[in-house]
Q: What sequence folds into this?
């Protein structure tokens, strides 16, 4: 339980609930994706006429859902963490409810690896999403967007030494 408490947003009671609901032996699930599916915390899908769309999540333990939702809200309010950055990023695009479910899923996946490997939580940092791509990649993407709006764009690096 002490290892689970290293996850932002997970307090003693939430750690107890996670252990009570999923146990400590992760070998029975086989992977984090199977645990999330069993818990009903994985993204749902809906396909009709060959088009794949988002769907509702599966049903799972209502107690586990409650504790994951509570932990996700707390993690979303934390400062300087990957989970807070994920919550903020998703809340702007998808809304608070879907961001909460997504962060709860991330907490459950982190709990799986913590219990499987017996290692504390390692935060990716609040700038993880910004660091995924290089500065050059980001500049090219912004230049393409401006060109699509009808502007002529020339990129020149700034000399900081002058």
A:
């Amino acid at each position: 339980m002490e290892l689970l408490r290293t996850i932002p947003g997970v307090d003693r009671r939430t750690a107890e609930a996670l252990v009570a609901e999923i146990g400590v032996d992760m070998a029975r699930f086989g992977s984090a994706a199977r645990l999330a599916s069993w818990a009903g915390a994985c993204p749902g899908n809906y396909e009709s006429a060959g088009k794949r769309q988002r769907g509702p999540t599966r049903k799972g333990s209502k107690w586990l859902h409650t504790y994951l939702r509570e932990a996700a809200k707390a993690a979303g309010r934390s400062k300087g963490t990957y989970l807070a950055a994920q919550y903020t990023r998703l809340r702007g695009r998808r809304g608070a409810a879907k961001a909460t479910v997504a962060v709860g899923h991330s907490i459950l996946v982190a709990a799986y690896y913590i219990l499987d490997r017996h290692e504390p939580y390692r935060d990716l940092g609040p700038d993880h999403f910004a660091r995924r791509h290089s500065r050059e990649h980001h500049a090219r993407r912004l230049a393409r967007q401006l060109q699509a709006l009808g502007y002529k764009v020339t990129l020149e690096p700034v000399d900081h030494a002058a």
Remarks:
- The helical segments are 12-22, 32-39, 62-77, 82-94, 96-117, 128-131, 135-148.
